[in-house]
Amino acid sequence: MSKRRWLYLVVAAVCLFSLIVVGCAKPAPITPTQPATPTQPTTPPTTPSPEVKPVVLNWADPSAYGTGRTVMQATWGKLLEEKTKGKFRFEWYWAQSLAKALDIYDGVKGGLYPAGINAVFTYHPKTWPIYQLVELPILFGTNGMAHGLVRYEMYHTVPELKAEIEGSGIRPLWHSAYEPTCFMSKVPIEKWEDLKGLRIGTKGPLAEWVKLGGAVPMGITTYEYYEALQKGTVDAVTSYPTTFGAFKLAEVAKYANKSPLQVYCTMGIINPDVYKKLPAEFQQLLDEAWILYQKWTYEAQWEMVDSELERLHKENGLTVLECTPEEYARWREQAQLVWEKYITGLEAQGVDARGILNTYESLYKKYANYTPKQIYERYAELYKKFYGRDLTYLREEILGDKKYLEYKEMLGIK
Asked: Is the pLDDT of residue 85 over 50?
């Protein structure tokens, strides 16, 4: 065998052996192909939502906290705060700490502070000449609920009244029917003749009325009464039983005649631009709150008159007087002379004041016969008529049976 052939045989044998070895070996494990990991989207960094701050309206109020009205008003405000879960509230500035009583209207109108109370319309007779109506003495009767409802209805339905308020640069939050004004004095006042020669702290139509009896009206505010009585610069004042104690007037005047002289009107006011910028639900809440404010005014003041006078009698020796029906009729006859002066003054300016006064009288006589339930059902009817919607936020409080004092306790108002 040639060398070349032998070499071929050796090479072939080596190749055959290699194939046999490879074929008998364990197969290598197959690594499965891993699916591609999907690319996660990049999450942009989150910007925290800005914290929604509550709407806080600074409130200018002339009275010190502790009167029947101020405690009731604080309860009213606390309820509105609860209804909005703290998103809306008033910050109360009592005792003229934000503005003097006579300056509050101009301050709210000018935007110096958003809201406050115009304590009496007689502070600004030239601004609201028609609204002196609600300050007239001995006006038709002393049903506080009826007076409140009449004022609510007439504001919305008598064009001259609404135009006078809206034209003055503010928006009303309520027109109240305050508790009856009475005499508080250093000497007894029981008859018309007792007024002669007395210096009496009073203002507006009541000042005109006491002048008819020979008294000298002294145009001072309620917040000046104590000092004036103490110093003897006045002999008597016209004020309100639930404020007698708060202003400590029984320390310096020992007589009160509880015969009603007047059912005057406080007006909560808000700057119109501030109101327009409020969220719609807060606007609606304030619209409904007008009715609740008047309901609680009655329960916090009118229903407390006798008990407050009794307390002052026991604690301060206050002597409480009251006119006989015959004497009170004499007082009312004199009051009607003031009504006529009001009418003729406005008629000279082209205002149908007699028609407005007659409307007030007819509505008052109608509503004076209503039960409390009927009064507040009528409010609900009028609210829907004026605003085009039903009571929502304060429906239970307005139409329900729970009283102001129950809410005061529930809300923890002292």
From this structure: yes
